[in-house]
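Page header: ASSEMBLY MODEL / two components / 774 residues total.
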Amino acid sequence: VVSVRRSASSVTLPRPEGARAARRVPRPPLPGSAAVRDGAGEVLTLSAPSTARRPGERRPLSRSPREQLVALGLLAVVVHVVIVVTALNGLQDVADANDDVARIVKAQRAFQDADMAHDAILASASGAMLETRFDQPVPAGADPSADVLVRDVRGFLADLDSVEQVELPPALERQVADVRDVQDAYAEAALALIGAFDSSDPATAESHMTQFRQDAVVLAERQERVTTSMSDEADRRRDVALAGREAVTDRLTASAVVAGLGLLGITWLLHRLGGDVATLLARERGVAETLQHSLLPDRLPDLPGLRLAARYRAGSVGTQVGGDWYDVMALPGGRVGLVMGDVVGHDLRAASSMGQLRNALRACAAEGAAPAEVLERLNRLCVTQDLGEMATIVYAVLDPVTGVVELANAGHCPPLLVTADETRLLEAVACPPVGVVREAQFTSTTHALPAGSLLLLYTDGLVERRDTPVDDGLTRLQRLVAVRPDADLEAVCDEVLDGMLRDVPPDDDVALLLIAPQAQLGPHVDVVWPAQAERLSLLRSLLERWLTEAGADDDEVYDILVACSEAATNAVEHAYGPGRADIGVTCDLEDGVVTVVVRDWGQWREARGQDRGRGLGLMEQLMDDVQVRHGDAGTEVRLRRRLQSAGAPAGVAAVRA
Amino acid sequence: VTATGVRAEDEGAWPVVRLIGEIDLSNAEALGAAAEGAVSNRADGLVLDMSGVTFLDSTGLRLVFRLARRLRDRQQVLRVVVPDGARVARLLSIAGVASVAEVISRHPHSTTAEESS
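Prediction written out in full:
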């Protein structure tokens, strides 16, 4: 058996010798460090610790809100303590002054008692003298006996003693002591009077009595003076106590005000600090979100025979954006690469890592290699080039014409396939996430994706909840999605998101990509096809599908296919030199007339070799009308044929309706 | 993707080459060479069975014409088997293959056993 198979072109990326060593490129020495070249030629960099501050260097003036907060708090506490301590001292002064006042008042009272006793002595003495000297009756109320005088003098002296026992301010103490001598002398004089009266010498008694009265007047004056001093002093001390009390009140008020202001300031700073923190978080989240959205496709490509819809939703409050991404790319041969990936992490790093992975995957997939091979290349790249974080990825290659989808899964959630007959998860052979194991093997599986079916690629955020098993989420998803060939895919996206996330907003972010091969291609198809012999077969498949849909019978399909194939083959053979090139194919059905335009953007050259140039004749025989236009911009072949079933072919009628 | 291939059966004086699947620019050259290689010097000619061909355009016709010319140069005959009503039959008739080869609708040595070489 000689069998000729289309061989997939495989490109193996060469691994340069010493690729790892190349990463240790010596950096230029840092300022303030010495570079030493050692024996092996490697540069060792020795640098001083960078924490040492240069002399004269000042701390920056602006403080962080946290430092401000601590400083204000400490200041408020210190001021508060100082004020309270001085207030307590003032309180002690007030108490002292009050004590003084009380003592002075007590002494004053004793002095007043002594004054009254002094009056009694005078009265008693006068009474005794009258009785002794004139033998006259004593006035009513006066006690004439000498015993009474003695008792009064003793009471007087007792009052004075009680004054002495009171502790008084030194100035008063001195005055009291001074007057005490006078008082003692006066008391002695009073007692001496008794003897004088007893001597029965009226003149002597008279003179004693006169003297005694004079002494009494002097004493009364001196005592009056001391009492006044005491009153004055008591008033002064009272004022001191009053002023002290006012000061304490003022200080306590000030303390309360300081505490209040401090609290106010701290509250304000806390508010500002909270605002700053919130702003910072919001800013980082915003940057990550912008980055993420810039890395997701602006709009999904418009591909013939395929409907696409996608959603990305960031996680709920408390988490940030993640590294979820999806991608759709046109591959050679009209095939479509579909990507759903999830980078570990939920921050700026994850988002940027996702960007790198996305582009690396695009590069690995551009040639149209099988999914398993693409993931293996990407994995090697990740592990050896330190491309970023670990990621789970589903990569699928879909042929929209044949409806065959081939996919490989690197540790990601299984895609969901929904057809008219069944809803099933495309569980694959377990393969590790990308970026973990150096020599990871991936396996591709092939599935049929017939017209009218639906393929769902999604990230774990859609089905995973913190409190429920993943299987529950998967079961829920399977129940939720039913196939409705004519349903608007955008609406289906919203339904799936709402249905899965309505009850519990997801912690994680969610990406969703829906792929639905169109049941109908419609009356107009416009594709750009790679000008490669290997891709002609798929182009014919697309055309055959469209022609059948347009109502062409079997012979017509074949004739038109051959004519188109001629035009396309000519473009592949004659229009371009070696290298990548494209051909454009446009199909139109109008009033039962099929028009297919095949164009290239190359330079036409005549057929070479024997048996060539048969194509144009064939086209003319198979089609009603063939127009070939060569120009500087390329060649355009316009093929027209009226279908026998002209009028209202069933397929197109359905599309138009 | 339709499998495309060629089966050659050594029938002694009339080796048979069966072409299967689609023939276009991507494989015509290889198929032609394989078919040519199946014809030994001793053979009277070649039976090219195109019953299994699902698509053919001028690239495939070129293969047939070239094969016919090579065989004629060696005084050998090309017989092309195409069932009536087959898709490719109309194309072969438009192209005038009958002028260089015997076009027959059935295999003359109808055998079920396919021997590979």
